[in-house]
Write a structure and sequence with these properties.
The protein has 342 residues and is mainly alpha-helical. Helix content is 74%, strand content 4%.
Length: 342
């Protein structure tokens, strides 16, 4: 089904002006894969279900298990909440477009999607840097860890991360809402990202580009440098540990997070730092899938499969659900043993 035959381009005439302004965009997405639409739809649907279910499971485990009430898992719980919102900002509309063939989105809807998308990207950069800093303190400053990373500091760091990203993105969105779009109205992407949307504006975009550059630099560059510095220090400290088992144990506490950081920042750099040329444009769309769709799905899998504490908490929940009587007996036995030891 051809997009031009199914959608209508609404034009709104301003009083006293000769220009007509577009009120709807067309997200081209993966519309060129006509013969594979259903297959692609099913693939993204499975990814969405796995992502939401996996991240909800992480949140439930972090809240329910007392052993996971630590700074590292506090930030992991925040990250999982973010990933649920993040993937829900992008995938439902993509799935609807693949299923119905209608890829129209209003200008206001597009700006709203970009607001949540940009806001959550900024928060994720901050959370990943906080998790790397937490691992730095645990490995490089173990004697001062409880003082420098307690529950009050964790709450403050998380609050600053969410609020600063919210306010910075709100300023950009206000400026974007003042722009006019005269045509064309096709966005060669599966989401409303900043660059493809700005390119369609017939207004002066110099101010919003400058403001966005300043805020995005503040929101992403310091967290990236903090993450980089933390892992340089961590790796340097680990290499100085004399025993092989000690090095392995120290590295195992941060290997999951390092893998997530590498995937996330690697794809972000490819999409936003490499030059915007025709040969890379299609590749950028593919790499955008990595940090918007695949990374949120991979995070709970990486942290659960490579993390001993999460696997133990998951095992406890499984036993409690499948064999409640055994759980009660084991729990009573554990409590009695602790009482005797006291």
């Amino acid at each position: 089904m051809e997009e031009g035959g199914t959608c209508r381009q609404l034009l709104e005439k301003r009083e006293g002006e000769n220009e007509t302004y577009i009120t709807e965009f067309i997200l081209l997405g993966f519309g060129n894969l006509h013969e594979m639409q259903i297959l692609v739809f099913l693939l993204f649907l499975v990814i969405y279900i796995v992502t939401v279910a996996g991240n909800i499971l992480i949140v439930v485990l972090v809240v329910a298990d007392q052993h996971l009430h630590t700074p590292m898992y506090f930030f992991l719980g925040n990250l999982s909440c973010l990933e649920i919102c993040y993937t829900s900002t992008v995938l439902p509309r993509l799935l609807a477009g693949l299923l119905t063939g209608v890829r129209i989105i209003s200008v206001s809807g597009c700006i709203t999607q970009f607001y949540f998308f940009g806001f959550l990207v900024a928060v994720e950069c901050s959370l990943l840097s906080m998790m790397s800093y937490d691992r730095y303190l645990a490995i490089c400053k173990p004697l001062h860890y409880t003082t420098l990373m307690n529950s009050r500091i964790c709450l403050q760091l998380a609050a600053v991360s969410w609020m600063s990203s919210f306010l910075a993105t709100a300023v950009v969105i206000y400026l974007m809402s003042q722009l006019h779009f005269c045509g064309p109205n096709e966005i060669d992407h599966f989401l409303c990202d900043f660059t493809p949307v700005i390119k369609l504006s017939c207004s002066d975009t110099s101010l919003i580009k400058l403001v966005t550059f300043i805020f995005s630099s503040i929101d992403t560059l310091p967290p990236f440098l903090l993450t980089l510095a933390s892992y340089v220090s961590i790796i340097s400290t680990i290499l100085r540990i004399p025993s092989t088992s000690g090095r392995r144990k120290a590295f195992s506490t941060c290997s999951s997070h390092l893998l997530v950081v590498t995937i996330y920042y690697g794809t972000l750099i490819i999409v936003y730092v490499l030059p915007d040329i025709d040969t890379l444009r299609d590749l950028n769309k593919v790499f955008s899938v990595f940090y918007t769709v695949l990374t949120p799905m991979a995070n709970p899998l990486i942290y659960s499969l490579r993390n001993k504490e999460v696997k133990e908490a998951l095992g406890k929940v499984f036993i409690k659900c499948m064999h409640p009587k055994k759980w009660v007996v084991a729990h009573e036995s554990l409590c009695s043993n602790k009482f005797v030891s006291l």
